[in-house]
Amino acid sequence: MKSSRPTSELLELLASRGLAATTQRLALLAAVLDSHDRHLSAEDLYRELSEELPTLSRATVYNNLAALGAAGLIEKLATPDGSRYGPVARPHVNLVCTACGSISDVLVGDPDLEALIGRAAAAGQFQPRSVSLSVNGLCGPCAASPAG
């Protein structure tokens, strides 16, 4: 899987957060950042990368996803089907469907949302690295279905 991002950009991101740049970590970071609006599970990432990196283990995937998330380089979302990972977008709201598991990013870059986060950070004398707000419920198709 070839990343759309230059390796130098990925190396800079890792260095800026004090993380070592291993082959596996670079590949995972690139895969998550290139996922755009998809939110992948650790198993999805393992399957995508294991052909390219035959020595990649599931433990390595989970450990590196935890490190990348803790550093604020990727976003971890809890869903009814388990954790999913995606790129850290500008402040936004994740709409997580509890029936089908779909995730939609909305209000990306909304000035009111960004102002709210700024006020909260200032009030708590806090410097946020990433922001994730999730709303769980039913997407339109699931809400409209007879089982919804």
From TrEMBL:
Keyword Disulfide bond on entry: no
Segments forming a coiled coil: none
Keyword vocabulary terms for this entry: DNA-binding, Repressor, Transcription, Transcription regulation, Zinc
Organism superkingdom: Bacteria
PANTHER family: FERRIC UPTAKE REGULATION PROTEIN (PTHR33202:SF7), ZINC UPTAKE REGULATION PROTEIN (PTHR33202)
Annotated family: Belongs to the Fur family.
Protein name: Fur family transcriptional regulator
Highest classification ranks of the organism: Bacteria, Bacillati, Chloroflexota, Tepidiformia, Tepidiformales
